[in-house]
Every structure is written in C-alpha cells, then in structure tokens.
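Recall the central idea of this unit: under ordinary conditions, the amino acid sequence of a chain determines the structure it adopts. In this exercise we apply that idea directly, starting from the sequence alone.
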Amino acid sequence: MRRDTVVVLGQVVAAVVAVVLAVVSWGRGTVTTSFAAIGEMPAFEATRYVAPWIVLSAFLVAVAGLLAIDAVTRVVRSAAEK
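Accordingly, the structure predicted from this sequence is:
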C-alpha cells in the first residue's frame, strides 16, 4: 500500500470513530428526568443539558469534519498528480 492510501484510510477511520464518540457524548449530555403526578399537578419530563458533554460532542464533530475534508483533499490531489 502506498503511504497516501494508508493516511487517507486512517483519517476516514478516525473521522468515523470521532462521529461515533460524538453521538455517545451527546447522549450523555442530555439527561431526562420524569416527575410523577402529585395531587393536581400533572406528570412531566424535564431535560437537563450537561455542558461539558455537549461541548465535547461539538468538538468531535468539528474534528471529524476536518479529517474528512483533509482525506478528500488528499484523494483529489493524488488523483490530479497521476
């Protein structure tokens, strides 16, 4: 395998891993709590957002995007050289 091919495959794998980790961290960043009905007060659900997990998720999406852009650039550049 050529070095460029290995680098592009590594970037694609890293981008996919970053997206999966972003989804997991987004799930950890939203916490839903259910409250039962008490007397005349109806039951309801409250959603709380945990900032560090949401920020990590956004960061991982940005990293995945940069890796994908760089991988596409490398493929286009190597195709143009041939």
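Residues 51-81 form the longest helix (31 residues).
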